[in-house]
């Protein structure tokens, strides 16, 4: 079986590609290596995948921008994937306030290109794509369930992810394509994105700088370890009993207080953190908390990793990857 993974040089794409290779899938990675964050990290991930010798599956990489429809069409025609795992996107809630147009371009137009390429394939592939917990906006009913209303996003990023879910429904309905959306909840782990809170906290702690804590620390996040996310993706991709269209939460089902997360990270790194308390930032939400019953019932998903287990693994990777910068 052949899987095309868009955003394969990204944090989640890299881990998903590694696991599909281990499971014997032939993986075609696709990424345009955007410079939203350190491109060296993306290149290192792609090199690690290319050096994956022991896997039973094969790996190749296409450097393609999903907004370049002609190139994307050619990739689909030449590769004829059985499954498309669409993870490429412009992520980041706060960045979408200052850079709105790239979200429209990559997350909306790019997503439409993926739908069109799937639709026109000789054998339309199953499409599994990344949505986000941010579609729940400022909802206060916890935990977030897939049946909750999601009509009030508070960032453009969230609005584009919700738009993807609606566009996917339309294509699935019109063309009988199988499309499943997964709403990821704050993913973390080794090879992490440098723009995410845990990375920013680790960087500040290791350089003895104050940590910016928004909403005076009164924030809660459902932190999901990368291995659990990949497990949920694999189960979704490999299941043959899912409906033509559906949306699932993929989270940990534990809403952690941000200050506790900071404390766990600080203990792991052996530092006393300095906190700079700040007001809520535009586009942010106070809390996320995933109901995971629907995905559990559909494919047997059960997350395994607490933050007490996952944060030390992330911290060890962080210190080792940024050894030169953190040893000074
Ligand atoms: N990490 C999280 O906590 C989280 C939470 C919710 C949803 N998501 C979603 O999961 C997906 C993967 O997120 P991630 O954390 O791995 O992000 P990431 O930024 O590490 O990975 C995204 C990859 O997509 C690539 N890309 C961006 N624009 C592209 C384009 N136009 N053409 C081709 N490639 C392009 C980037 O170069 C990058 O390697 C995204 O869709 C994101 O919105 C992530």
| Poorly predicted segments | none
* Rg value: 19 Å
CATH C-level class of the domain at 2-186 and 224-252 and 290-303: Alpha Beta
Question: Biggest β-sheet: count, sense, barrel?
Answer: 7 strands, parallel
Annotated CATH homologous superfamily of the domain at 2-186 and 224-252 and 290-303 = NAD(P)-binding Rossmann-like Domain
User: Helix/strand/pairing class, anyone?
Assistant: alpha/beta
* Helix coverage percent: 40-55%
**Shape estimate:** globular
> Are any ligands bound, and if so which?
nicotinamide-adenine-dinucleotide
CATH architecture of the domain at 2-186 and 224-252 and 290-303: 3-Layer(aba) Sandwich
Quick recap of the structure?
The chain has 328 residues and is α/β, with parallel strands linked by helices. 43% of the residues lie in helices and 16% in strands.
Describe what this molecule looks like in 3D:
The structure is a single chain. With 328 residues, this protein is of the alpha/beta class. 43% of the residues lie in helices and 16% in strands. The protein contains 12 helices and 13 strands. Strands 3-2-1-4-5-6-11 form a 7-stranded parallel beta sheet, with helices on both faces. The radius of gyration is 19 Å and the shape is globular. The mean pLDDT is 96. Nicotinamide-adenine-dinucleotide binds next to helix 1, helix 5 and strand 5.
Main attributes of the structure:
single chain; 328 residues; alpha/beta; Rossmann fold; seven-stranded parallel β-sheet; two-stranded parallel sheet; 12 helices; 13 strands; binds nicotinamide-adenine-dinucleotide
